[in-house]
Specification:
Keywords: ATP-binding, Coiled coil, Cytoplasm, Cytoskeleton, Microtubule, Motor protein, Nucleotide-binding. InterPro entries: KIF11-like (IPR047149), KIF11-like_kin_motor_dom (IPR047241), Kinesin_motor_CS (IPR019821), Kinesin_motor_dom (IPR001752), Kinesin_motor_dom_sf (IPR036961), P-loop_NTPase (IPR027417). One of its GO terms (molecular function) is microtubule binding. Responsible for microtubule translocation. May be important for the organization of phragmoplast-specific arrays of microtubules. Plays an essential role in stabilizing the mitotic spindle. Required during mitotic cytokinesis. By secondary structure, the chain is of the alpha+beta class. It has 15 helices and 19 strands. The chain folds into 2 domains: 413 residues, 3-Layer(aba) Sandwich (Kinesin); 321 residues, Helix Hairpins, CATH 1.10.287. The strands form 4 sheets. Strands 1, 3, 7, 8, 9, 10, 11, 12, 15, 16, 17 and 19 form a 12-stranded mixed beta sheet that branches. The chain has a 3-stranded antiparallel beta sheet with strand order 4-5-6, covered by helices on one side. Strands 2-18 form a two-stranded antiparallel ribbon. The longest helix has 216 residues. The structure holds adenosine-5'-triphosphate.
Length: 810
């Protein structure tokens, strides 16, 4: 969409600007020009060119080096009443959190889901308010910051583009929007709310353009005009501004000061839009519409200079892409649909080229793409709302919309903020515009022609010139085509005469051909008969030759087989010879192995018997040592017993001595002190007790020692017995194993000898049989060969005779 900031500020701007510029209206300021102005739209670049003191520092690049991807939102409408009544299956699933839309496709009885991710996804339950908040609120902010922004709705017919952009038809009550109000009225309300909250000085104007069958019409133009009989229906020209942009000549822009004014304008413009009933939508929009809001806001620089900031919001409702057979479009409707699809196709091609960067972008191929040029790959901030239906019947169109929208996600724009204008420059421009309008008005009043500004006149002239040149070219083309046609006519006449001659000749020739054909048929019959006879003979000869060949082949095969058998037999004999040699060698090896094994076994036997005798002698030595150890132990124990006994005796003698000594003392002292006596007796008893204890201990020790020794003796003797037994068992076992092994080897030996004998016998018998077979085979082969040769000779003689016969017969 071409951003449209005025190159020359119109009278409308002057009127609007008068709200913040102390500018008294000119005496020739008509009431109409104070609210409306005949406008020329052109792009923002013109402002830079015409602005007397551009301030580049204020312009900010929006997209950086690589640009900014345009935003693509997806909205799926709910099933409508008809779809619900016939239980139409739903094939679309929206996942708002994951921003995904999945379409379930049935290909060859397999369900295949295709999933697309968008910048935002709105499911069937989404509200108008949600769409507005996400799609429009950020862009409204950008517009008020001085950017040009475009929101356009794209989708199959009947999927809710108009519903999303304009709303469901609910009426505004007491300035409050109905819940089904679309993006446009909500954007308008928000813009006014923000401007009022900021107490900003601003002016606003709106335009409403319709593109129908590749013709542009102004939806805000009055029904009757002083200057035209039916201006509202008159198509408007889309002009190139020479700087790569376009403008719509004569497009009305209405200055507005409140939201309700815009609602009325919208209602009026929408009412004029071309709509019609199709199978898919009762009120289908048959045209594309572009509603534009241009806002000028006053700002003061830190230096105190007054600047005008300008932003523009374009709200585009595209006509629906449609399947003509499904939408039921006929005649005029079909042409409309064709045009709609054509412009949408061009839009698709533009999107593809932008995404693939594949050279020339075909903006110029349709008015729609010329108008949207700045919004697709230009300096505008753009948001596409793609609309789809959930029903299975719309699946093809839905997939096409999803593909289209998904591809559009990759378009990069390079948003640039519009240059701010200095108020003085703007006022100057406004004065120029007022003068121009005054002159125009004057010329109109005087009825002595129509005033056209020089620039416009030149543009018109250039266009006219280009048109007449084109016409000339077309006329020239037509003339040459006429000449070609005349030439072709002459050629056609001569060809006609020629073809009459040829048809006469053809008839004569046809007669002759029939006669010749009869003669030919007779000849053909004869020829067929002769041919059949020849074929029969040929067949016979062929068969004979085949038989002959087969016989010769068989003889050859037999001969080769015989040769092969002879070869095989000689190979067999040599193999048998080799086998005999190998067997001899094996026999030698077995004999050698047997003697070696016998030797080894003898050595093993000897070793085992030696080791057994050694073990026996060792065991005997051990037994003797144990016996001597036991006897020495017994001696030691006896000595100890004697010593203890001696000690016992000496102790008892000493006790007796002590008794004697006590008695003696008793006698000697007799009546000496009783005390001493008692002490002596006490001592004596103590000593006695002590000695008794010692004796008992010594006894116990001795007994313990004796017990221990006897136990040790017992266990040692048991051990020796066990070892002896084990050893004997081992010796017996080893002896039996060696005997078994010897037996085994003896048996093997015997078997080997037996085997050798059998082998020799079988070898001899084999050789005998083979010799017999060879002689038999040789005799048989010779017989067979002889017989076959005879047979072949007979057959050959027979066939020769037959051939001779045949030759003789023919
Ligand atoms: N999200 C929605 N919620 C409820 N109703 C909807 C929704 N979207 C569309 N509709 C209804 O579906 C019908 C068709 O919608 P609309 O006219 O907006 O489709 P369209 O895409 O503009 O079609 P066309 O291209 O033919 O103009 C209308 O009756 C509208 O109210």
């Amino acid at each position: 969409m071409e951003t449209s900031t005025p190159r020359r500020a119109p009278a409308a701007d002057a009127a609007a600007a008068s709200s913040y510029v102390s500018m008294s209206p000119s005496p020739s300021h008509t009431p109409r020009s104070s609210t409306k102005a005949k406008r020329t739209l052109n792009n923002g670049a013109a402002i830079v060119a015409s602005s007397p003191s551009p301030s580049p520092s204020l312009a900010k690049g929006g997209g950086g080096g690589g640009g900014v991807n345009i935003q693509v939102l997806l909205r799926c409408r709910p099933l409508n009443k008809e779809e619900l009544s016939i239980n139409t299956p739903v094939v679309i699933t929206c996942n708002e959190q994951r921003r995904e839309v999945s379409a379930a496709q049935n290909i060859a009885n397999k369900q295949i889901d295709r999933t697309f991710v968008f910048d935002k996804v709105f499911g069937p339950k989404s509200k108008q308010q949600d769409v507005f908040n996400h799609a429009v609120v950020p862009l409204v902010g950008e517009v008020l910051d001085g950017y040009n922004c475009t929101i356009f709705a794209y989708g199959q017919t009947g999927t809710g583009k108009t519903y999303t952009m304009e709303g469901g038809g609910g009426k505004t009550q007491n300035g409050e929007l109905p819940s089904d109000a679309g993006v446009i009225p909500r954007a308008v309300k928000r813009i006014f709310d923000i401007l009022e909250a900021q107490s900003a000085e601003y002016s606003m104007k709106v335009s409403f353009l319709e593109l129908y069958n590749e013709e542009l019409t102004d939806l805000l133009a009055p029904e009757e005009s002083k200057f035209s009989d039916d201006k509202s229906k008159k198509p408007m020209a889309l002009m190139e501004d020479g700087k790569g942009g376009v403008f719509v000549r004569g497009l009305e822009e209405e200055v507005v000061s409140s939201a309700s004014e815009i609602y009325k304008i919208l209602e009026r413009g929408s009412g004029k839009r071309k709509t019609a009933e199709t199978f898919l939508n009762k009120q289908s929009s048959r045209s594309h519409s572009i509603f534009s809001i241009t806002i000028h806001i006053k700002e003061c620089t830190p230096e105190g200079e007054e600047m005008i900031k300008c932003g523009k919001l374009n709200l585009v409702d595209l006509a629906g892409s449609e399947n003509i057979s499904r939408s039921g479009a006929r005649d005029g409707r079909a042409r409309e649909a064709g045009e709609i699809n054509k412009s949408l196709l061009t839009l698709g091609r533009v999107i593809n080229t932008l995404v693939e960067h594949s050279g020339h972008i075909p903006y110029r191929d349709s008015k729609l793409t010329r108008l949207l040029r700045d919004s697709l790959g230009g300096k505008t901030k753009t948001c596409i709302i793609a609309t789809i239906a959930p029903s299975v019947h719309c699946l093809d169109e839905t997939l096409s919309t999803l593909d289209y929208a998904h591809r559009a996600k990759n378009i990069k724009n390079k948003p640039e903020v519009n240059q701010k204008m200095m108020k003085s420059a703007l006022i100057k421009d406004l004065y120029f515009e007022m003068d121009r309008l005054k002159q125009e008005l004057y010329a109109a009043r005087e009825k002595n022609g129509i005033y056209i500004p020089g620039e416009q006149y030149l543009a018109d002239e250039a266009e006219k010139k280009a048109m007449s040149e084109k016409l000339d070219r077309l006329e020239l083309g037509l003339e040459s085509k006429d000449k070609q046609l005349d030439e072709l006519q002459g050629l056609y006449d001569s060809q006609k005469v020629l073809s009459a001659d040829l048809s006469d000749k053809l008839q004569t020739l046809q007669k002759r051909m029939q006669e010749t054909e009869c003669a030919l048929a007779v000849l053909e019959e004869k020829y067929m008969q002769a041919n059949n006879t020849i074929k029969e003979k040929e067949y016979l000869i062929e068969n004979l030759l085949k038989t002959e060949k087969v016989l010769v082949d068989e003889a050859h095969t037999l001969r080769t087989e015989l040769e092969n058998t002879t070869d095989d037999l000689s190979g067999l004999f040599s193999k048998l010879e080799r086998k005999g040699k190998i067997e001899d060698a094996n026999k030698n090896i077995v004999g050698h192995f047997h003697s070696q094994l016998t030797q080894d076994m003898n050595i093993l036997h000897r070793n085992i018997s030696t080791s057994v005798s050694q073990q026996e002698s060792q065991l005997k030595v051990l037994e003797e040592e144990m016996q001597s150890f036991i006897t020495s132990k017994g001696k030691v124990v006896g000595g100890l017993q004697n010593q203890v006994r001696e000690m016992k005796e000496s102790f008892s003698s000493r006790i007796a001595e002590l008794h004697g000594f006590a008695n003696e003392l008793n006698l000697k002292s007799q009546l000496s002190s009783e005390k001493l006596n008692a002490q002596v007796s006490a001592h004596t008893s103590d000593l006695e007790d002590c000695l008794k204890g010692l004796l008992a201990d010594a006894d116990q020790l001795l007994i313990g020692l004796q017990n221990g020794l006897s136990q040790q003796e017992e266990s040692l003797s048991t051990l020796v017995e066990q070892q002896h037994e084990g050893l004997t068992r081992n010796v017996e076992r080893t002896k039996s194993i060696s005997a078994t092994t010897m037996n085994f080897f003896r048996t093997i030996d015997a078997h080997a000898l037996e085997l050798k004998r059998i082998l020799e016998e079988s070898q001899a018998s084999h050789q005998k049989q083979l010799l017999q077979l060879q002689t038999k085979f040789e005799v048989c082969a010779a017989d067979e060969e002889k017989y076959l040769m005879e047979k072949v000779a007979g057959l050959l003689a027979e066939s020769n005779a037959r051939k001779k016969n045949m030759v003789w017969m023919t």
